[in-house]
Specification:
The protein is mainly α and 202 residues long. It is built from nine helices and no strands. It has two domains: 75 residues, Orthogonal Bundle (Arc Repressor Mutant, subunit A); 118 residues, Orthogonal Bundle (Tetracycline Repressor, domain 2), CATH 1.10.357.10. The radius of gyration is 18 Å and the shape is elongated. It holds the Pfam family TetR_C_11. GO terms for molecular function: DNA-binding transcription factor activity; transcription cis-regulatory region binding. This is AcrR family transcriptional regulator.
Length: 202
């Protein structure tokens, strides 16, 4: 799914209508580019409009303001990936899925750094982004866990929220605090030492 998929996600009270998919993708791509270059506070609707070659009226017909537009762009970036493969085992599926999300998070690194000061000063923006980002990947994880239960690898309903939050916390900790790579070793250790024990503990 591309950034245009984010446009189909409700963006708040100001979301009035969907745009042409190509026009919406151009706007959200401009948002991501500016976030990485200048950060949230220095990014303006005027800059987005110029970079995307769109009118401000077009932008405001779709989103209530900058925060809603940024949330839509971040959501689109989070869900922009191929379907997770069915490897035939729970461990294989977790490793493949985590590897895929590592690549997505690497792409978001510079953008998130540009957002951090604004999130600290604007709790409402942080809550809006959290609502969008918590949803990303959830459907794929549900499908992965359903396959594992069908194969008899899980005998109880796992805590999906805990699984998603723990995984994302580990990814961001590594990207933002330690600076260590999201490599194959990280994926294997996370699956074997954190995710599988968490799932099997129910």
């Amino acid at each position: 799914m591309t950034a245009q998929g984010a446009g189909r996600t409700p963006d708040g009270p100001g979301a009035a209508r969907n745009l042409n998919p190509e026009r919406e993708r151009a706007i959200l791509d401009a948002v991501l580019e500016l976030l990485a270059e200048v950060g949230y506070d220095r990014m303006s609707i005027d800059q987005v409009a110029r970079l995307a070659r769109a009118s401000k009226a077009t932008i405001y017909r779709r989103w209530a303001g900058k925060a809603e537009m940024v949330a839509a762009a971040m959501h689109g970036l989070a869900v922009e990936h191929q379907p997770m493969p069915d490897t035939g085992t729970l461990r294989g599926d977790l490793a493949a899925g985590l590897s895929m999300f590592c690549r997505i998070y690497e792409r978001k690194h510079a953008i998130v750094l540009g957002l951090l000061p604004a999130i600290r000063s604007d709790p409402a923006l942080g809550r809006l982004l959290h609502r969008h980002m918590l949803k990303s990947g959830a459907d794929e994880v549900v499908e992965l866990l359903d396959r594992a239960r069908a194969r008899g690898e899980l005998d109880r309903e796992p805590d999906l929220t805990a699984l998603v939050e723990v995984t994302k916390a580990l990814l961001w900790h590594r990207l933002l605090l330690t600076g260590e790579p999201l490599d194959d070793g990280f994926v294997a250790r996370t699956v074997d030492e954190v995710l599988l024990p968490l799932l099997r503990a129910g």
